[in-house]
């Protein structure tokens, strides 16, 4: 008998009929002899509808009350799913985030989980019940107020519960059947990954793959929670996310896990900035004070004798207005000539733990982009990732070129043998 | 400066625009220098929609999860109202029932308030904030689960908060502008009462007046909370509900407070029941075990020598099926001949604390019904109430006849001088 934590969201919980299908799957898992804990997202458009209501009564809704408002969505789906399971004659019990012992910081709208005290969940399991937990929410340790965990929060709820309960696996049910070597909408011959390491998945998520949020993967990595990403519309295995040491006997690992892309970034170039110590620091302090996260940074080599240089950086396009306003307000203290803003960029990232030990990856990567006629504007790397910024209208071609160059292309029949384990 | 508890529900909170109007009224009360605590109901059709969802996933929704589901409605309106008040630049803070310290029994669906620990509300008030509380809900003392207070629960929340906070008044905002001597839809010349005693209001509520639930009035009576029932669509005074001793100097009290009616009852007659000690007890134990509340009871005088009699009683028509099934299941142990069921009855009640000291009320009451040609089927009385059961199609005529006989009719101009205080 295993302890399985499952998470359902998206179109799996779009309406009452969808909830009944989810209930049937949970009942099947339970009847197979497993202990089951479920984290669930809000149904369909509930969250959007609640946000609209907030804006109908208030131009700038306060974060604390926004959290109370939005958490109602997961409570509704949690109660309904619990009822739908009980309709099968299977004992089930519903819990809000606070009841499930999810303790967080008090940062409303994007609280972080500090601790999970799953006493009530453990009691329910011991009494033979399926436990259904409202995802995305917790209780602030400091203020005893209701908090939300931000985007992808229900995934984090599931992983945190799995960690606290020492579950055998955390199954994340989504609209797709796993993690692919690239977005199948761009690369039709992308392979489904059978397995991927935490660090690779972290880089993929941070590089624009939307399947999981980085913080959820990070949480799983820290507590060694195996994640199984799979489709709620089939029984096929999806993709397992786990540590290298969790993968049993040594095996030939693929060099490259996949290619991620991101169209949501913009580039700001600060032109004519004095090339003296401390100037860049002032610029990035200004941006940080505006609560904007920056990603890639390039500083041009100062043209000989001019004493000024240009600095470019990328940031989420949604923060563009805020960042520009902040930099413009500090124009005198930073002392630049002008700001350029460009939201027609795309970012491509090649990710693979095998880069650490295999040489020649960079050469093949840049060669493929050159052969495809892609112009590269910025570059950044980690030990398992190479990222470049291109024109957005060249991004798809760039993704396909790199995917092919690293032999990631497959036909459907080959998909299941990726990784060489035949699992 | 006063501490005012306000309760809003019904059409006052039908949608976002209605919530904004409620917010403006609360802000005005606050800006007049008062401390304000608000209990709020769910918006518009929210509760009905949630009930429909429950029945879409489950034929017989479990009570515990139903309470989690339904309480989402008041949390949504609570958060939105708090936002709408903050939009005026007035500090406000929202609280769920559990956060507000509303501790209840664990009887899901109709929990009773055991205690209110309003520490967080008091802190918010001390910090100059308006406190907005989700009505209808609490936290079970035994199970630490979310509970609901049953019909009219938000009114009870308001009164319980007013009691715990020693508020100066509990204002219940409704769709009507006060308590009337009769339902104005039946008696067009009914008077609005300026003031009514707790006990009279209790009898009115128990006799079918829908403006407040008896348990809410009972709570107010026990803790001496003055209630002001008024319209959210005007600034006019409504009706004050208070104790006799709270009404200041002695004054001439009206004999009769009003006439209530109730179309929601049915009558069960158990025919041919053995007229021996203990038989009636077995019958009513059977009904009580089915969780059905009975109201009026009539036992016919045993026809001489037959040894059998008939017992009739009234009950909520919604419990008719349940009660009949229970009695039929005990047919052998009770030993009756047959059951008759009649849901075409109406109940009329005349209520007034003045009955205690004024004679002749009964004579005038039955005389008025006789003159109007009303046939009386059952009678029950308390020291401040006379109730009769009639055919339902005679009920309106009966109400009008009694209202007129006791000089309760008025034209609109007289309404505000009722009670003789000129208040």
What does this structure look like?
The structure is a homodimer of 423-residue chains. With 423 residues, chain A is of the alpha/beta class. Chain A has a domain at 3-175: 3-Layer(aba) Sandwich (Carbamate kinase), CATH 3.40.1160.10. Chain A contains twelve helices and 20 strands. The first copy, chain A, has helices at 16-31, 46-57, 63-86, 119-126, 153-165, 198-206, 214-223, 279-289, 320-329, 331-334, 361-371, 395-405, and strands at 3-8, 35-40, 92-95, 102-104, 113-116, 130-134, 137-140, 146-148, 169-174, 195-197, 227-231, 239-242, 258-262, 265-274, 297-299, 308-316, 338-342, 345-351, 378-382, 385-391. In chain A, the strands form four sheets. The first copy, chain A, has an eight-stranded mixed beta sheet with strand order 3-6-2-1-9-11-12-10, sandwiched between helices. A four-stranded mixed beta sheet of chain A has the order 5-4-7-8. Chain A has a four-stranded antiparallel beta sheet with strand order 13-18-20-19, sandwiched between helices. In chain A, strand 11 and strand 12 (239-242) form a beta hairpin. In chain A, helix 1 crosses helix 3 (63-86), helix 2 runs antiparallel to helix 3 (63-86) and helix 6 (198-206) packs antiparallel against helix 7. The radius of gyration of chain A is 23 Å and the shape is globular. The A-B interface holds A 16, 19-20, 23, 50, 53-54, 56-62, 64-66, 68-69, 71-73, 75-76, 78-84, 86-87, 93-94, 96, 99, 120, 144-146 and B 16-17, 19-20, 23, 50, 53-54, 56-62, 64-66, 68-69, 71-73, 75-76, 78-84, 86-87, 93-94, 96, 99, 120, 144-146.
């Amino acid at each position: 008998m295993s302890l399985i934590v499952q998470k359902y969201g998206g179109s799996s919980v779009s309406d009452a009929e969808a909830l009944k299908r989810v209930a049937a799957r949970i009942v099947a898992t339970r009847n197979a002899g497993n202990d089951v804990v479920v984290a669930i997202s809000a149904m369909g458009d509930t969250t959007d509808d609640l946000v609209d209501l907030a804006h109908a009564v208030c131009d700038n809704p306060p974060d604390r009350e926004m959290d109370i408002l939005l958490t109602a969505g997961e409570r509704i789906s949690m109660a309904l799913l619990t009822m739908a399971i009980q309709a099968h004659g299977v004992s089930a019990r519903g819990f809000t985030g606070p009841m499930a012992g999810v303790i967080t910081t008090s940062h409303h709208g994007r609280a972080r989980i500090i601790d999970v005290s799953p006493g009530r969940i453990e009691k329910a399991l011991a009494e033979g019940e399926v436990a259904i937990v409202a995802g995305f929410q917790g209780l602030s340790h400091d203020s005893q107020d209701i908090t939300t965990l931000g985007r992808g929060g229900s995934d984090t709820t599931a992983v945190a519960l799995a960690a606290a309960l020492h579950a055998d696996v955390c199954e994340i049910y989504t609209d797709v059947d796993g993690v692919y070597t690239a977005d199948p909408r761009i690369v039709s011959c992308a392979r489904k990954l059978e397995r991927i390491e935490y660090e690779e998945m972290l880089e993929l998520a941070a590089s624009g793959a939307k399947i999981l949020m980085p913080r959820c993967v990070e949480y799983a990595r820290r507590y060694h929670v195996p994640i199984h990403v799979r489709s709620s519309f089939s029984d096929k295995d999806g993709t397992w996310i786990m540590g290298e040491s969790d993968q049993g006997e040594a095996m030939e690992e693929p060099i490259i896990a996949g290619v991620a892309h991101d169209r949501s970034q913009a580039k700001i170039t600060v032109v004519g900035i004095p090339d003296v110590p401390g100037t860049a620091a002032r610029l990035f302090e200004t941006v940080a004070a505006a609560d904007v996260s920056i990603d890639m940074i390039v500083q041009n080599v100062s043209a000989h004798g001019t004493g000024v240089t240009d600095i470019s950086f990328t940031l989420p396009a949604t923060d563009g207005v805020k960042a520009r306003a902040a930099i413009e307000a500090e124009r005198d203290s930073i002392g630049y000539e002008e700001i350029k803003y460009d939201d027609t960029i795309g970012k491509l990232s090649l990710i693979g733990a095998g880069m650490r030990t295999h040489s020649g990856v960079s050469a093949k990567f840049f060669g493929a982009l050159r052969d495809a006629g892609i112009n590269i504007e910025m570059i950044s790397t980690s030990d398992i990732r190479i990222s470049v910024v291109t024109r957005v209208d060249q991004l798809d071609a760039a993704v396909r070129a790199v995917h092919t160059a690293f032999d990631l292309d497959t036909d459907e029949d080959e998909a299941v043998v990726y990784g060489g384990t035949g699992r």
